[in-house]
C-alpha cells in the first residue's frame, strides 16, 4: 500500500518546498488541492500550464505520486448559478489534469451539512452534475472520483451504487472512500459488518482511501485524533485491503505535523 497525506495539512508552501517536505517525512503520495497547498496558486482560476508542469516535475523528482487532484465542489446545490460554477470549475480541473497526471480529480457532492429532506431535494441536482462531469472526463479520457459523506446527497452505500448504476462508466467515474465521513452512529454501528458490506458492494470503484480518526466530545462535536485513538475500527478495512487491494493509496487527512510519524507507522501497519 502507498502511504500519503492531504498535502495542505503541512501548510501552504512553494511547489518545490512542499514536494521535498513530503519526501523527507516519508510519504509515497499526496492529495493536492492546488490553491490550498501551493504559495504560487490562490484559486483554481490562477492555475497555469507552467504551474502544472512544475508540480509534476518536482513531485516526480521527489518520488511523490499524486493519486488525487482535489477540486471539492458544491455539485448538488439547487442554486443554478452555484451549481454551474461548480461543474465548470471541476471540468476545468479535469482538463488541467491532462497535464498534471493525477490518478483522479476528486470531489464531495456538497458543502453544507444537509437535513434528511434537503438531501432528497439535492440528490437529482447532484446526479445531473455528476453525469456532466463524467461526460467531460470520458471526452478527455481522465478519471473523476466522488466521495460519499453521510450529511451530503451522496450519503450512503445505496446512493453510491445508484450513481454508479446510472452512469455506467466505471473507467471514468471512481470513488474516494473515507470511513470517518460514513460513520454517522459510532456508538451503535457494528463497524466490522458495516465496512465489510461497503467494501464488498462498492470496493471495485475505490481509487483511494482517506484515513483519519475522531472522537465526539460531551457536546457531540467532532474532534480529530491520532489514528487508532478514536472511534474508527479499521480491522475489516485492513483485511479487505490485504486481500483485494494491496496497492491502494492511503491518504491521511487532518494530519498534525507534530505527530505525523506515529500516524505513518499506523498506516504502514494497516
UniProtKB/TrEMBL annotation:
Keyword set includes Transferase: no
Keyword Isomerase: yes
Keywords tagged on the record: Isomerase
Superkingdom of origin organism: Bacteria
Entries under InterPro entries matching the protein: IolE/XylAMocC-like (IPR050312), Xyl_isomerase-like_sf (IPR036237), Xyl_isomerase-like_TIM-brl (IPR013022)
Domain Xylose isomerase-like TIM barrel span(s) in chain numbering: 22-269
One function term, GO molecular function aspect: isomerase activity
PANTHER family, alphabetized: BLR5974 PROTEIN, HYDROXYPYRUVATE ISOMERASE
Protein known as: Sugar phosphate isomerase/epimerase
Source organism of the structure: Ruminococcus hominis
Amino acid at each position: 500500500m502507498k502511504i500519503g497525506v492531504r498535502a495542505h495539512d503541512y501548510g501552504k508552501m512553494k511547489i518545490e518546498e512542499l514536494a521535498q517536505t513530503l519526501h523527507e517525512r516519508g510519504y509515497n503520495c499526496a492529495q493536492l488541492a492546488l490553491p490550498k497547498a501551493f504559495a504560487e496558486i490562490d484559486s483554481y482560476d490562477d492555475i497555469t500550464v507552467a504551474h502544472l508542469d512544475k508540480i509534476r516535475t518536482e513531485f516526480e523528482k521527489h518520488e511523490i505520486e499524486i493519486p488525487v487532484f482535489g477540486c471539492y465542489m458544491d455539485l448538488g446545490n439547487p442554486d443554478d448559478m452555484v451549481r454551474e460554477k461548480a461543474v465548470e470549475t471541476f471540468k476545468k480541473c479535469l482538463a488541467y489534469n491532462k497535464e498534471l497526471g493525477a490518478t483522479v480529480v476528486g470531489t464531495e457532492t456538497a458543502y453544507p451539512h444537509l437535513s434528511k429532506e434537503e438531501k432528497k431535494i439535492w440528490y437529482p441536482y447532484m446526479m445531473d452534475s455528476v453525469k456532466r462531469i463524467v461526460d467531460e472526463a470520458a471526452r478527455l479520457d481522465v478519471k473523476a472520483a466522488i466521495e460519499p459523506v453521510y450529511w451530503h446527497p451522496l450519503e450512503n452505500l445505496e446512493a453510491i451504487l445508484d450513481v454508479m448504476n446510472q452512469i455506467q462508466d466505471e473507467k471514468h467515474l471512481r470513488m474516494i472512500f473515507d470511513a470517518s465521513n460514513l460513520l454517522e452512529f459510532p456508538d451503535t454501528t457494528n463497524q466490522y459488518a458495516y465496512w465489510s458490506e461497503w467494501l464488498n458492494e462498492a470496493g471495485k470503484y475505490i481509487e483511494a482511501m482517506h484515513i483519519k480518526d475522531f472522537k465526539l466530545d460531551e457536546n457531540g462535536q467532532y474532534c480529530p485524533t491520532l489514528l487508532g485513538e478514536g472511534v474508527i475500527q479499521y480491522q475489516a478495512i485492513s483485511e479487505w485491503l490485504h486481500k483485494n487491494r494491496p496497492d491502494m493509496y492511503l491518504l491521511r487527512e487532518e494530519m498534525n505535523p507534530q505527530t505525523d510519524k506515529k500516524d505513518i507507522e499506523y498506516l504502514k501497519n494497516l
